Amino acid sequence: MHSALIQELRLSPSPLAMFFADERPAGALMYDDERWGCVISLVGAATAGRTVVLGKKNHNCLMQGQGRCHPHHKDKDLPKYDIPHEYMVLKPLRLVDEEKETPEIVCMFVNATQLASLVVLANYKRAGRDAVIIPQAAACHAAYLLPYHEGRQAEPRAIVGMTDPMTRKHLDEDKVTFSVPWRMFLDMEQYLAEDALADTTMVCT
Which SS3 state, helix, strand or coil, does residue 57 take? Predict the structure, then answer.
């Protein structure tokens, strides 16, 4: 799919779409069944253009609905979901077929300048100034679990992530993730079309 936001901000590597499916996409990269798989370790392959999946038999965050990355690690403060689908799919947003696939989350990889613009777009037409948060969280929680949870709220928020020191090796040192629920991403696309980044009411004076 085409995204004016991605083009305008020159986002690289390619932002990823996350969604669920009951059938494994043809040619998708996947961990062996029953193997524990960290979704963040597959980010490199996905941003390079591969479709990657995690299945219910893999021990990973969202598909088992436990709100954790490691099968032996529990955090009662995280949201928990029982996902009624077989696979969690990650693929470049530009490769999403809008007629057949609807993302749950868009995960962008941004530097400080790009983050500044995204914060403006996220807060545009919103009451308050807290449409973007940086929680203390594992990389996978911030990139996918927490944005998935936000997508089920009346006023969803964007999540800045990759502040987990253990997973920084999977991303360039000047980048963080900026993950948003799909409907929030569409709103931000519309706000960009309305020239929100040039709106002086959004700038402190």
Answer: coil
Residue carrying structure tokens 């993950």 = 179
Note the pLDDT tens digit of each residue in 159-198: 999 998 888 887 888 999 999 999 999 999 999 999 999 8
Between CA 49 and CA 27 the distance in angstroms is: 12
- Quote the crossing angle between the two packed helices 182-193 and 112-123, to the nearest 10°: 90
- Give the span between the Cα atoms of 178 and 165, in whole angstroms: 17
Partnered with residue 105 across adjacent β-strands are 18, 181
| Among 97, 117, 132, CA closest to 189 | 117
CB-CB neighbours of 64 under 10 Å: 18
Using an 8 Å Cβ cutoff, are 87 and 11 in contact?
A: no
Residues 133-142: tens digit of each pLDDT: 999 988 888 9
- Phi and psi, residue 186, nearest 5°: -65, -40
Going by C-beta distance under 8 Å and a sequence separation of 6 or more, which residues neighbour residue 190?
A: none
Distance CA 62, CA 144 (A): 8
Q: How far is Cα 190 from Cα 139, in angstroms, rounded to an integer? A: 28
The edge-to-edge listing of strands for the beta sheet with 52-55 is: 29-30, 52-55, 87-92, 16-21, 105-110, 176-181, 158-161, 132-133
Contact 19/101 with Cβ under 8 angstroms?
Answer: yes
Please tell me the distance from the alpha carbon of residue 54 to that of residue 58, in angstroms, as a whole number.
Answer: 6
